[in-house]
Amino acid sequence: MSAWGRRGSGAGIRLPRPRVRIFRPRRWALLLAILAGLAVAADLFFPAGPFPPRRKEVILVQRGESLRQISGELKRVGLLRGTLGFEVLARVMRLDRHIKAGQYEFALGTPVPALLRSLAQGMSGLNLVTIPEGLTLLEVGVLLSHHLGVPVSAFDSLGHDRAFCDSLGIDAPSLEGYLAPDTYEFLPGTSPEVAFRTMVAKQEEVLRRAAAGRDSLPLGLSLRQLLILASIVESEARLPSERPRIARVYLNRLAREMKLQADPTVSFGMGIGPRARLVLRNLRSDSPYNTYLYAGLPPGPICNPGRAAIEATLTPSPAEPSLYFVARGDGSHLFGRTYQEHLVNIRRAHEYQAAAAALAESLHTADSLAAQAAERGSQAAGRRPGSPP
Q1: Which end of the chain offers a freer environment for a tag, N or C, measured as fewer CB atoms within 10 Å?
Q2: Three-state SS at 125
Q3: Start-to-end Cα distance in the chain
Q4: Does residue 302 form part of some domain?
């Protein structure tokens, strides 16, 4: 057979087709897993997008809210684009049941792990309400109203509700004196009832611990009488070191059946606050709280005393014979055993106050002259050479 014949006979042979590579399912699964992982990582570490605005959002987590409700609130304010990553990570970190109620402030773009840790840790110091020592019931109500967003009138009316006082075991017409100064974690919108119950319970704890292990209180006082006297000490004392001395002076006067003659009780009875300044005619104002007119303790506390004032009243200075004291004007007091010493101390206090006022006036004058000289100097420096003065 010729060569042409051999070539011709080969024309009927089919050549194998090239094999088409089919993408295997395993590779598809790997690619999808990678994409899903990247999506989850983006949700966790860029929850508000790659370039979120520079601002902060506030959220309120209420007691009893579910994880889904919390994540929904985070999404609503823009801290999350999706809730799945947040909810899954919360369960993986076992924080889903440890998120605490409170008001929180977060910057947009805060990673989800950081959000969860903050929510589990609880409210920060910016959300705490601090009640200083010596505030009256009205002043406490104003402070709570500002922080909690509840009308002042709601606190005032509840604080004078006799039925509410009875429910707390307080045999008094108001909660004056029974609200412990302290720092509290109150959510915005917390009801006055919840806030007052918490504070009264704290004050009862303070009294109970202070009186623990004692057979009796000074002069046989009851706990309520102790609280009344502690409120006077709180209103009088400016220096912590003087609280026990002032407490002893009042106990000395009570033991001798002398009138307390405490200025803060007079101003409280006048409705102007226990630390208001008085003039001589104020001491004649007729009020059951006026201890210049009426002997013994006033009908009730005049402010809400703190732990230190209560403890000072329970453990006053043991060797303090004084029966009088007068303010020097700088926060301290001069103490006297007799009325004659007291008159001398009053004269010394007036001299000290006059000297302090004169010094303050001279310093103010010096500052004014220095400021005028500096102003003239700056004006002179600002003139061009050769310009008229």
Answers
A1: C
A2: helix
A3: 131
A4: yes
Q: What is the CATH number of the domain that holds 325?
A: 3.30.160
pLDDT at 387: 44
CB 196 within 8 A of CB 175: yes
Mean pLDDT of 317-343: 93
What confidence tier does 8 reach under pLDDT thresholds 50, 70, 90? very low
For 252-291, the DSSP string reads HHHHTT-----HHHHHHHTTS-TT----GGGGG---TT-T
Residue 199 in domain:
yes
Same domain, 247 and 310: yes
Per-residue pLDDT reduced to its tens digit, 146-190 = 888 889 999 999 999 999 999 999 999 999 999 999 999 887 778
Nearest to 185 by CA among 256, 258, 102: 102
Residue 385 resides in a domain: no
Tens-place pLDDT, residues 252-262: 999 999 999 99
- The packing angle between helices 84-92 and 67-76, to 10°, is 140
Summarize pLDDT for 276-302 with one digit per residue, the tens. Answer: 888 889 999 999 999 999 999 999 999
Mapped onto helix, strand or coil, the DSSP state of residue 1 is coil
242 is in which domain, residue-wise?
220-320
278 and 247 part of one domain: yes
Candidates 320, 303, 260, 313; CA nearest to 139 is: 303
Domain finish residue from 59, 93, 126: 126
What's the domain count of the chain? 4
Burial class (CB in 10 A: 0-12, 13-18, 19+), 95: middle
Token duo for residue 314? 């329970």
**CB 249, CB 335: distance < 8 Å:** yes
Rg of the chain in Å (alpha carbons): 38
Question: CB under 8 Å to 341, separation ≥6 — which residues?
Answer: 324
Regarding whether 198 and 170 lie in a shared domain, the answer is yes
Residues 100 and 63 occupy one common structural domain: yes
Report which of 169, 292, 177 is spatially closest to residue 226, judged by C-alpha positions.
Answer: 177
Model confidence pTM above 0.70:
no
